[in-house]
Specification:
Helix content: 25-40%
Oligomer: single chain
Distance between the termini: 26 Å
Shape: globular
Largest sheet: 7 strands, mixed
Strand order of the largest sheet: 1-2-21-20-8-7-9
Radius of gyration: 24 Å
Number of strands: 21
Number of helices: 26
Length: about 675
């Protein structure tokens, strides 16, 4: 194995300081496993825990399969079928963590197969001390973030957030760890091997067009089960409610099934729901209507455009990209309020728009075949978009977001469904007089008038993107702020400032500048940060490939707002803007980068109501939270502290799911460092 010069004790101190960057993700406890391979060969496994299942010592990590600690592992995430796995494979262990089964399933099925048996969201690293093998794996959709790095000495590192890697002097390069993959390095190998374990045809065969027609009862049952399974919790939890279709369905299912769900907290209590927005936002009335009809204890959090702008630098630091910022800021502010009220887990509606073609630009899909291919592109890239936003914005405050609509069962059913069941045609009515709106098949599956899940006006409401739904003043305010901050002269020289895919709007010029300050400028591996983010034009959250559906879209600068599509109720007067930089070279650049690009804004978080109208509704403002000193320390204080002897490594406060590194500690010595939170 490869070596890092230095003594074990100072290197352990370094590891601890790096792991502190993850503590916002795991504020409840902290453990390190140190294993001596020989005098100068060591393994470190570090875990910072957010305790949701089996809080207390009975669920602590790092984990072991036996008393000899020959299989040691750490994980971030949730394994919803852990009890079934324990019973099926006779797994008996005093540790009650749902992640405990990971090591046992690995021992039974091996490195390349164990991930297929896990139903949940996870990033995990296993050290098999009997064989010297090191294994890393990530869930099918990348719901838990994970990054991978190569050390200058040949070492390997894994982290849930790249802020643990981007400025370490021992890191040679880093990249995203791909979702649905497992990485294995044997004892005497200098390089590991990456293998796709999630190998469904829809994601491996670009020419595959499914033909199976949907069964409404089957679809409904699969979605209901996914939500029920994700009620597994030993701590208080809530739901994010925007008033849109996806979050409303999840809330309804949670309310209906909480009392009968297995291993759920407060089964006899009412479900709490949360929404956020600027007063007067489009989703407010619908969110309140859903909460009232379902009988949830509803909490409304308000923010102003000024407060949203205040959060921009912190949001980009936590998000680690300049995409998704419009939707991330409200979710970041909301998560702070949720944590302050004592909740540690939330259910969220990400995924349906990608799986069922719910974004408004899908109205212009030229064919069923292209409709399906765009769904596949969108869904396979979620780990860089909505999924990353949902995880990192909630985890910034020690709250876990669970996404039932992205369970393997729901994903596999939806992506093996004929696109004929998803096509949009608002001029056509079904036998019950319902329009073929966005996500028609999902709406229809839950259109049960004899026992309604939702009010009809909510179930059949037009799609509203989250960044729009929380209030157009926020999106428009961000654009105006960028106009003030970025001069015309600066913007005219954007190709010099940003030679890699120059931004086409001042908004993105500003966000790119913040991103570079955090992760690029002055850092040896700064360009690696750009390799982790997607590039390419988007219309109403489309992929770059789908921009070709409309010649006018290709000529524009692009905009992720749903108002960019003419079918939106509020699209009148919306100026998409012309792209003055369109050229052969820029088109080539967009094309080459589009394979790793995804959509823009998210759509499934939460919005708030303009005012409380029910006794079960509480309201809170961001200003009030600031007055209560709930906010984190300022960015300057958080980033300015230096680690001694660390080459100017900066300290952050965001939570990562894990951090793993094989590093050399001394001549003829080797070490593995793993830290998950």
């Amino acid at each position: 194995m490869h070596y890092l010069k230095g003594e074990p004790k100072p290197n352990r101190e370094r590891i601890y300081k790096l792991a502190k960057r993850l503590r916002h993700r795991g504020p409840d406890s902290y453990k390190i496993d140190k294993f001596e391979h020989s005098e100068n060969e060591q393994t470190f496994m570090v875990h910072k825990r957010l305790a949701i299942v089996a809080p207390g010592e009975s669920g602590e990590q790092p984990l072991y399969t036996d008393g000899g600690k020959q299989t040691c592992f750490i994980a971030n995430g949730e394994i919803y079928n852990h009890q079934k796995l324990r019973e099926t494979f006779n797994i008996e262990h005093p540790n009650k963590s749902d992640c405990q089964v990971i090591g046992h399933v690995y021992e039974k099925f091996g490195a390349l197969e164990f991930s297929k048996h896990l139903d949940g969201m996870f990033a995990t690293v296993i050290e098999d001390r009997k064989t010297g093998r090191l294994i890393a794996s990530r869930d099918h959709m990348g719901k838990i973030p994970m990054y991978m790095a190569k050390g200058k000495d040949g070492s390997f590192w894994f982290a849930s957030e790249m802020k643990c890697l981007h400025d370490d002097p021992g890191v040679e390069s880093y990249q995203l760890f791909p979702p649905g993959h497992v990485w294995v390095k044997e004892k005497n190998e200098t390089e590991g091997t990456m293998t796709r374990w999630y190998d469904e045809r829809w994601i491996t065969d670009v020419d595959y067009i499914p033909e199976k027609r949907a069964d409404l009862s089957e679809l409904r049952e699969i979605v209901v089960k996914a939500v029920k399974d994700r009620l597994m919790s030993d701590v208080p939890y809530a739901v994010l409610l925007s008033g849109g279709l996806d979050s409303s369905l999840i809330t309804s299912i949670a309310v209906r099934n909480r009392a009968t769900a297995k291993n759920t907290y407060g089964s006899t209590e009412k479900v709490h729901s949360f929404s956020i927005g600027i007063k007067g936002a489009p989703d407010l009335k619908a969110a309140r209507k859903v909460a009232d009809s379902l009988g949830t204890i509803h909490h409304e959090i308000y923010f102003t455009p000024e407060e949203a702008l205040d959060a921009l630098p912190d949001v980009v630091w936590h998000l680690e990209t300049f995409e998704q910022v419009r939707a991330s800021v409200p979710m970041y502010l909301l998560s702070r309020a949720i944590k302050s009220m004592g909740f540690k887990m939330v259910l969220s509606g990400e995924g349906a728009d990608e799986l069922f073609g719910g974004y408004l630009y899908f109205h212009k899909a030229p064919s069923p075949e292209e409709f399906h291919k765009e769904c596949a592109r969108k869904t396979s890239r979620l780990h860089q978009w909505d999924v990353a936003r949902a995880n990192k914005m909630t985890m910034a405050w020690g709250v876990e977001a669970r996404t039932p609509l992205l369970s393997k069962a729901v994903v596999d059913y939806a992506m093996n469904m004929s696109p004929l069941d998803k096509m949009i045609d608002v001029k056509k009515l079904d036998q019950d007089g319902k329009k073929y709106l966005e996500k028609y098949i999902l709406r229809k599956a839950f259109d049960t008038p004899e026992d309604p899940y939702l009010p009809a006006e909510v179930l059949w409401r037009q799609k509203e993107q989250f960044s729009d739904g929380v209030g157009y003043d926020w999106v428009d305010g961000l654009k105006a702020h960028a106009e003030e901050k970025v001069s015309d002269e600066e913007f005219s020289k954007r190709a010099e400032r940003f030679p890699l895919s120059p931004p086409t709007t001042k908004e993105y010029y500003l966000l790119r500048s913040i991103f570079e300050e955090h992760f690029v400028t002055g850092f040896e591996n700064g360009q690696d940060a750009y390799k982790t983010v997607p590039f390419g034009k988007s219309i109403a959250c489309s992929t770059p490939e789908a921009v070709a559906w409309d010649p006018e879209w290709e000529k524009s600068v692009g905009d992720i707002s749903g108002r960019a599509v003419g079918v939106h109720d509020s699209s009148d007067g919306f100026d998409l803007g012309k792209d003055s930089a369109v050229s052969a070279s820029s088109s080539s650049s967009s094309s080459s980068s589009s394979s790793s690009s995804g959509s823009g804004s998210s759509s499934n978080a939460t919005t708030s109501s303009a005012r409380a109208t029910s006794s079960t509704v509480t309201t809170t403002t961001v200003a009030a939270l600031n007055n209560k000193k709930i906010a984190a320390a300022s960015r300057k204080a958080r980033h300015s502290r230096r680690l001694p002897g660390g080459g100017g490594i900066r300290r952050g406060s965001t939570k990562a799911i894990g951090f793993i590194s094989q590093v050399r500690l001394a001549t003829n010595s080797s070490s593995v460092f793993c830290a998950f939170a």
